[in-house]
Amino acid sequence: MRFHYCPDCGAPLDTRILGDEGEVPWCSICQKPLFDMFSTCVIALVVNNNGDAAILRQGYISGKYGNLVSGYMKPGEAAEECVRREITEELGITVTGLEIVGTWWMEKKGLLMIGFFARTDDTEFHLSDEVDSVRWVPVEDALYEVHPEGSVSYALVRKYLDRLENIMFTENLI
After folding, report:
1. Domains defined for the chain, CATH in brackets
2. Looking at 3-132, which runs of residues are DSSP E strands?
3. Looking at CB atoms within 10 Å, which of 20, 42, 44, 145 has the fewest?
């Protein structure tokens, strides 16, 4: 979101060159910059001890593809707290391990996605109302369940599978 008026005093904004940031919206009355804002979300590939991935069905997101757990961060919330909260809220399971994997910019929605691998010992779900259904699938099959190549879900599953292949390759060398 780009500011056109100061949210504090309501004055129309000018622009000002601010060092390496270049031209940014500037409130001449409050004497401060107002940088563009965007939403930040988390997304997680949840895997159980059997090597299965949780694939969600959420009709309000897609009627064709499965989803991974995802959600918006709340002000003051760390990304790790957010992903644990989302997994607990949506699936009703406990996270036993968490690893940040990367970030993706979603131009179409103007948001930043922070991707995680999440581990759980649980196998039974207790779904929230925003999840229509969920099932465990072998992580190798998850790639064919989620949105196609180019999506954050696909990229996250692909990274997990690449890591598994690398581990198996390394073990075969020993």
Report:
1. 1-37 (2.20.25), 39-173 (3.90.79.10)
2. 14-17, 23-27, 32-33, 39-48, 52-57, 69-72, 97-106, 111-120
3. 20
